[in-house]
Amino acid sequence: MAILWLLLIYISPALSDNSYEAFLNCLSHYSPNSNVSEILYSQCSVNYTNVLNSTIQNLRYKSQNTTKPILILTPTNQEQIQASVSCCKNHGLSIRVRSGGHDYEGLSYRSVNYSQFVMLDLTNLRSIHINSHHATAWVQSGATIGKLYYKISTKNSTLAFPAGTYSTVCAGGQFSGGGIGTLTRKYGLSADNILDAKIIDSNGMVLDRAAMGEDLFWAIRGGGGGSFGIVLSWKLRLVQVPEIVSTFFINRTLDQGAIGLIYKWQYVAFEMEPDMFLEADIVPNINGTEPGAVFNSLYLGRCTDMLTYLQVHFPELGVGTSDCREMSWIQSAVYFAGFGDADPKILLDRGLQPKIYNKGTSDYVIDPIPFAAWEGIFDWFRSNISGSIYMISHGGVMGEIPESYIPYPHRGRVLYNVQYLALWNRASDTEAHLGWIRGLRSSMTYLVSTNPRRAYVNFRDLDLGSNDVGRNTSYENARVWGEKYFKDNFKRLALSKVRLILRIFSGTSKAYLHLSLNGKITKTL
What we know:
Belongs to the oxygen-dependent FAD-linked oxidoreductase family. By secondary structure, the chain is an alpha+beta fold.
């Protein structure tokens, strides 16, 4: 999603209905070495719908009422992306960038204000180059996390990268918003481990870290996908993992003390040593009956050491020898992706994520939630709604990295991230599920972070606020939602956008900018 705060740009009228050929000719001009007709789809193209729907994961936005792109571009190389940017600029068209299509609100491939736009689909930009000697990797934005994990493992079994667990999520979206996963407590977010990047700006220029400057490099690592340009590829710092890691996955019913265990978990998980990742979830049924709790863990070491540690720090959980499994790190990535003991090559399959109706949103918890409140939370799961809560503990190195290191600010005293997720199969069930998840989040108001109530930008939720209709908004309007995702870093992000705009358009008489940091126009070009 392009977060278009502080910006009003007029270049030329939008693409007319009969300008497809003109756009195609423009692409041919800027990319003379390509057969550009193979990467351009209009709404009249035979394969338009198939390309559009190929990576839409949320069926809510496959409806006829969704505002769709007037053109889809599927570039296969850098030159074609540059040509796409130049031609969209020449025709006065905004661009939305999609890498994997997992965004909850579908903002990479739909418009919420009925404006015309072009979708740039990076699914063909998926190369990965591993340098195991220097423990680095270059990853294009259309590559999946699963492919990254697999490629690393083929080079070195004791190297990894801290990112999420869904194998079909792509690098472009995840890295640009943060990236939380099983190694976060040990090594930080995905975005904390970005060493360099190649970004294409609105003039079609390719910039690396040195060329873009530290201000822009700071902003693209967690400031939200598509906000500052099109990130072509990322240079990653790979991290060390042992030859053998340990995992467990256990369920606890209400009769087995699920509520008390969740209550205790929020105290101990934050304080655990960084080698221990312990996630806690609430699900609607355990053994097909009542709601219950699920605990799953990754420990960077052997089962004997993990069990000894848990016996001291969380004996109530009752994890035993039979619960613990030892495996390689890559096999743990398969395990956490939900594929059990499958061959790691399964991580290369981009089509395994089920397409389903969904709604997701998030919170952060600063102070432990009281026991009585957990009883009320569990009551929300005594319905016919298919919903869950996923809680990822912070602490470890996350408590040591300054909030201003990158735009992602949820560090320090943050105990854990909360993800609420509702899933359903029929369009007719939409309103019931939306009402449920919105009611659940509302009931959590006084139990989670405040001033602002924080949220994770990779779980973007338009219920929390959005820009005014159109491209123009003020800083004061945008901060209503911006500070929820970025806290005090939002102002720096806004200023980074201002400096980027001034750099790009300085001396360009055909562009007009209205920039506001206090609700009024402060600069006009």
